[in-house]
Amino acid sequence: MSDADVLVVGAGLAGLATALRLTAAGRSVRVLEASDGPGGRVRSDVVDGYTIDRGFQVLNTAYSELQRLDVLDSLQLRDFDRGALLRRSDALHLVADPRRIPTGVRGLATGVAGSPAELARLGAFVAAVSYGPVEALRRRPDRAFLEVLESAGLDGAPTEHFLRPFLSGVLLEDRLTTSSRFVEYVLRTFVRGRVVVPVGGVGALPERLAARLPPGALGYGRRVVAVRPGEVDVEGEGTLRARAVVVAAGPVQAATLLGEAPPRVHSVTTVWHAAPEAPVQRPILVLDTERGPVANTVVMSNAAPEYATGRGALIASSTLGPEPLPPDLLHATLTRLWGVDTRGWTEVAVSRVPEALPDHPGGSPLRRPVRLAPGLLVAGDWRDTPSSQGALLSGRRAADAILLRP
Ligand SMILES: Cc1cc2nc3c(=O)[nH]c(=O)nc-3n(C[C@H](O)[C@H](O)[C@H](O)COP(=O)(O)OP(=O)(O)OC[C@H]3O[C@@H](n4cnc5c(N)ncnc54)[C@H](O)[C@@H]3O)c2cc1C
């Protein structure tokens, strides 16, 4: 006797994408989520009236899976500038897409401080990955992104002053050993898409997706403790059966349930401060060309005033690793980066995300299999790429595999 056609373990983006695809095809689905809400790593809370995402993150409107789900128009989106302010000695240098901010190339010369030849090579490289055919990116051999930079002659100032500071906050690793194919895709989406957050926080995205599921399909507080083809054991509840089980429980939990060694993961910590006023007016990341301990810092309320309605400015500052910096070091670093005294800023929340992104080193397959055995499948960013796009795509792939061959 089966409890549904398909049981999905986890209501992160991957699990939600699986469930949406299957219910649209007329299959009955039950999603079992251990926590108290949808979204997994993409959740937001309200703390003292401020919207706090569980770690600084953004959505990119160029992600094909977000477009396919046709969900962006239902979210009120707020834009960040596509660029950065580079802190180099005593000045902030604006580097931005010149099609939108005409002065945005000036900072390349002053902030990146590469030779004219290096800057020309950087421009040509970004243009080629952004506007060349996507098949060309797929066909190139995959290796550590740093090796690509070295062979393109970009491993001097362009890497140290711009690409490494920018990408370390995206990839959550600063050695740039991540897959070149993935990093080139990330650069392409940053140039081609809008970089946004919904007014209610990034968690509004999974909430909107979860609301599309049939009533009763999604259950919270239901922890799966064992999986087998066509069966799961739910803590305190017993065994549920279905024709197929999709394990979408995040890299570490899913691998553990499946009896695999968990993949390496990268961690990040975001400290959220309230300030009486914003140190700059632009909705833009500030990056450190001096490789300091803060990966990036941004006035969230410049992009989305709703994050701090009527309460001054809300600033998110992220460091790689599972723990925040000691407060004195954090304030000294933020004071140097922003060029204002930050000791009057008050801490609103700290988001520690020890399992933020699965490692995706050079040489990784573009896609890992989602079907493990008849009746047992897996989905999640660790089966595709470490991103919202990868999680959603893996979920759709798992659903399609079931629809093709249950
Ligand atoms: C701080 C941070 C910043 C990021 N920034 C970006 C960004 O800017 N752009 C981008 O594209 N991506 C970003 N990402 C990556 C993106 O958020 C993830 O790749 C994606 O959300 C992963 O989704 P998932 O469904 O694979 O896994 P998860 O979100 O981890 O979902 C797994 C779900 O399974 C549940 N679960 C676990 N174990 C069990 C169990 N035993 N039983 C039942 N349920 C269980 C969990 O509670 C969770 O809800 C960021 C991630 C973090 C953490």
Give an overview in words.
This protein is α+β, with helices and mostly antiparallel strands and 406 residues long. The chain has three domains: 4-42 and 203-264 and 367-404, 3-Layer(bba) Sandwich (FAD/NAD(P)-binding domain); 44-60 and 196-202 and 265-358, Alpha-Beta Complex (Polyamine Oxidase, Chain A, domain 2), CATH 3.90.660; 114-192, no CATH class. The protein has 13 helices and 20 strands. Strands 1, 2, 10, 11, 12, 13, 19 and 20 form an eight-stranded mixed β-sheet that branches. Strands 8-7-15-16-17-14-18 form a seven-stranded mixed β-sheet, sandwiched between helices. Strands 5-9-6 form a three-stranded antiparallel β-sheet, with no helix packed on it. Helix 1 (13-24) packs parallel to helix 13, helix 4 (116-131) packs across helix 8 and helix 6 crosses helix 8 (180-192). The structure holds flavin-adenine dinucleotide.
Strand content: 25-35%
Q: CATH homologous superfamily of the largest domain - what is it?
A: FAD/NAD(P)-binding domain
CATH class of the largest domain: Alpha Beta
Q: What is the 3D form?
A: globular
The percent of residues in helical segments reads: 25-40%
The span between the termini is 17 Å
* Rg: 22 Å
Structural class: alpha+beta
Low-confidence stretches: none
CATH architecture of the largest domain: 3-Layer(bba) Sandwich
Mean pLDDT: 95
